[in-house]
Amino acid sequence: GAVVSQHPSWVICKSGTSVKIECRSLDFQATTMFWYRQFPKQSLMLMATSNEGSKATYEQGVEKDKFLINHASLTLSTLTVTSAHPEDSSFYICSAKTGLEQYFGPGTRLTVT
Amino acid sequence: KQEVTQIPAALSVPEGENLVLNCSFTDSAIYNLQWFRQDPGKGLTSLLLIQSSQREQTSGRLNASLDKSSGRSTLYIAASQPGDSATYLCAVPTSGTYKYIFGTGTRLKVLA
Predict the structure, then answer these.
(1) What distances in angstroms separate CA A86 from CA A104, A111, A112, B74, B89, one per listed residue?
(2) Partners of residue B72 on adjacent β-strands
(3) I need a labelling partner for A80 at 20 to 30 A (CA). Which of A7, A59, B38, B58 fits?
(4) How confident is the model over B82-111, as a mean pLDDT?
């Protein structure tokens, strides 16, 4: 089956720094990838849609200048959390779409101290 | 706007019981529905994907049904085991898009 990987699986960073999370489709090409966020004991919420070769589209309430998304190739999308703050600590999960199917990555746990 | 609700929010059962998890959604114009499992602190594991044209899907001890007209899906787990303990999430795409809306999940605990 199709595999989506994320790197890193977990990261701790200091407040004010930026951190980049990668999402890769390992055995298929994905023109569209999605980024979700999950706070403790809550469900996943869609943050943005990442389209290869074009700008990402963000859901209402998500700061695009804070969460920079780049979909540089058909197999890679990156999410950069800029000037991270403790309230950005969360579980970030990406998914990659191929045809009508969507495959989810294992997630990245971000802790901002 | 698509809304997804899961009942019950939490469930604790003794090992060996058959159980049913429920998922309801408000917009029936979906092209599929997925059930996922999430272990504490971990990512998602896709369990079953039901296309809109299907009524049910089975994988091992799991069976998921879909009734689009009533906006409901159920996940049936047969002969539950302690290893089934996890949070189960259902997700449906919003109408006309591929963006998934997730339910709040059912936290299942199977007691040995």
Answers:
(1) 25, 7, 5, 37, 26
(2) B24, B67
(3) B38
(4) 92
Task: Give the closest residue to A4 by CA, choosing from A98, A109, A95.
Answer: A95
Tell me, yes or no, if A8 comes closer than 8 A to chain B by beta carbon: no
CA distance B79 to B27: 32
User: Considering chain A, what is the average pLDDT of its residues?
Assistant: 93
CB pairs under 8 A between A and B: 49
Counting runs of H as helices and runs of E as strands, what totals does chain A give? 0, 11
Q: Does A29 touch chain B (CB under 8 A)?
A: no
Is it true that the peptide bond before A8 is cis, omega within 30 degrees of 0? yes
Residues A54, A56: Cα–Cα separation, whole Å: 7
Taking CB atoms and an 8 Å limit, are A43 and B46 in contact across chains?
Answer: no
Check if B101 contacts A (Cβ < 8 Å).
yes
Chain A residue with CA closest to B49: the answer is: A101
Cis peptide before B8 (omega within 30 of 0): yes
Could you tell me the pLDDT band of residue B93, with boundaries at 50, 70 and 90?
confident
Nearest Cβ partner for A97 among B51, B98, B105: B98
